[in-house]
Amino acid sequence: MPLADVLVITGTTLVNDTLGELVALARPSARIVVVGPTVTMIPDAFFERGCHILGGVRVTQPDAFLDIIAEGGSGYHFLGKSTVKVTLRRRDAASFRRRQPSVASDAAEPATAA
Questions:
Q1: Nearest of 59, 31, 41 to residue 108 by alpha carbon
Q2: At 69, is the secondary structure helix, strand, or coil?
Q3: How many CB atoms lie within 10 A of CB 1?
Q4: What is the pLDDT of residue 65?
């Protein structure tokens, strides 16, 4: 990882407590991307840890989403039906600066298509 230009990390790294270790292994100029359905719920937590881009979902139909979850459904069942995929990026992501926390009220902006 110390040689990678881009790291794509899953949100599971929060559960297994390895996000900090993986970010620390990245070289300073590397772009760090974190993906997972709930990642975009707490973007500042990721941005403050040096991540640049987040990919997750936004619930568009809460009742339908909860029905699917209650029935044991997963992403295959709710993506595109009661949720949409979203991407957030840190405002300074284009410059690849890392380990400089963004101001919380100004930390995220919707990413544009590349």
A1: 41
A2: helix
A3: 13
A4: 92
